[in-house]
Amino acid sequence: MLSGLALSLVTACSVVPYHPDKTTGSTGSYGNVNQSNQSVGREIVQSAKLQMGTPYKFGGNSPKEGFDCSGLASYSYRLNGISIPRSTPDQFKSGQHIDRNKLSAGDLLFFRTMGQSVSHVGIYIDNDTFIHAPNSRKNVQVDSLDSAYYKKRYLGARRYW
Predict the structure, then answer these.
(1) Strand pairing partners for 131?
(2) Residues of the chain whose pLDDT is less than 70?
(3) What integer best gives the mean pLDDT of the chain?
(4) What's the rounded Cα separation, in Å, for the pair 86 and 3?
(5) Which of 2, 39, 72, 115 has the largest count of CB atoms under 10 Å?
(6) Which one of the listed residues 13, 19, 69, 97 is annotated catalytic?
(7) Is there a catalytic annotation at residue 19?
(8) Catalytic one among 13, 19, 97, 120?
(9) What does the alpha-carbon distance between residue 136 and residue 152 come to, in Å, rounded to a whole number?
């Protein structure tokens, strides 16, 4: 039982319930990325990049306490005026599906890193790279979507503006 709990803390994102303080923000049409929307995505990425090196913390929502994957995503979006669900499964259920060949900075990428459902999220940067809070052994960092580990576990992407 303890080993199962330890494993989940090492490999999973938080499943903190979603309690929005406002409706999911929208700065444009889902799926259509114009210059203004690209700017929003780049700002989200910049907000996440400022958290590079912040420790992983299960359930973490801030630079002070640390981040889990969905906490980093919701924090980076919130700093840019967009409220998204807090948990990875709820983030995956909302937003607009985006094909991998149409990814834009700021889109959320979802992965199955444990179990049979979505369990991890990262923020797309560009050139098949993304920023995320991987697990309790690592800090917020950039990884490649084309790495063997993430390529095999990729489930899809969502856009929220």
Answers:
(1) 123, 142
(2) 1-36
(3) 85
(4) 26
(5) 72
(6) 69
(7) no
(8) 120
(9) 21
